[in-house]
Write a structure and sequence with these properties.
- This protein is an alpha/beta fold.
- It has one domain: Vaccinia Virus protein VP39 (Rossmann fold), CATH 3.40.50.150.
- The chain is 41% helix and 17% strand.
- It is built from twelve helices and nine strands.
- The strands form two sheets. Strands 3-2-1-4-5-9-8 form a seven-stranded mixed β-sheet, with helices on both faces. A two-stranded antiparallel ribbon has the order 6-7.
- Helix 3 crosses helix 4 and helix 10 runs antiparallel to helix 11.
- The longest helix is centred in the C-terminal third of the chain and has 23 residues.
- It is globular.
- The structure holds S-adenosylmethionine.
- The site of S-adenosylmethionine has 24 residues, from helix 2, helix 4 and strand 2.
Length: 361
Amino acid sequence: MTQATEGMVGGGYYDAHSSFQARTAASGGALLAKAVEALTLPANGQVTVADYGCSEGRNSMAIVGEALTLLAARGASDMAVLHNDLPTNDWGTLAANLAGPDSYLRTFPTARPLFAPHGFFERVTLPASVTLGTSGSAAHWLSAQPPGIDMPRSLYRSDAPPDQLPKIVAQAAGDWTAFLSARADELQPGGILLVQMLGSDDSVDPVRVSAAALMGLMNTCILDLVDSGEIPAEVYARYCFPVVPRTIAEATIAVTGLLADRLELLHCGLTAVPSPYQAAYEKSGDAAAFARDYVAFTRAFSESSLRDGVFRFARGGADAAADRMYGLMQTALAARPDAYPFDDLTLAVMVRRKPVPSSWR
Ligand SMILES: C[S@@+](CC[C@H](N)C(=O)[O-])C[C@H]1O[C@@H](n2cnc3c(N)ncnc32)[C@H](O)[C@@H]1O
């Protein structure tokens, strides 16, 4: 396993099953307005918006469109949009979305979309070139498995054994610093980055970790395959689901510490974003539909990572193992629809690139 994920499930599947991520993006509307208000607009009116971890683009279209509207209202005249994700992302669907009815190009036909297929833990574009950076539901992904991880019976930050948790937290800390450091290179002086990602609340004991119940169910279902001999136990022991919801302190420390000479923290806070799948179930009472939609959402973001790290080692092949595991999840959710809530806490972080001191030029 080389990297944490190859991206979301493609072919339009992620777009069709990411209404939770769409809600997360929408919940950041007021912060996006503040970000555009607080950034330094280049004197020539030429701006670049970068969206980091854009996936297939349905949700990206909405947030970028909103950003362009706000920037145009501030006087931006020429606009470029850099869409960033991994090289293995479904770029074809993104291109189709750009040509589709919900594209920001309908409103801003002179804006120029650019693709940046490169991991966001490194610089993905030229230094000092980005006016506004956004990133939705992406920066919680790790770059790779935490080195030396050994978790035979658990999957995630919330259920990791005490001797393994520090490895997970250390990997997340290093990755976050790398992510921010790359953005500090790319942002123009006075440029702003707004990140929304999964969060954890450590003001309560035990720490409240976003999606803990869902990941607990996923762990139970994978262990079913491990205990039946379908998946080798030593393979599962080396795998941790490579998404880490950070606490406010964990998100803040890199900005106020190592990167304090380059970045200024404007906002860091947690907000609960309700699960649309739970809301639909409460309205309809249809447990089967709830289980189907909740599993499709889970599959869209998790399957690529689980295939590479776990399912490809299954005795009966990756396809059968994936279908079996997600099938088990669906059965459990239909039987007990209230037992595994998504329980999200979205962590929003806004930073501004400090001006480069004249003595450095
Ligand atoms: C859940 S999707 C979010 C997509 C979109 N921003 C949204 O709000 O719906 C997470 C995205 O982050 C991308 N991602 C994960 N690790 C990445 C990395 N190292 N570099 C660039 N993109 C990455 C994934 O490929 C995926 O497309």
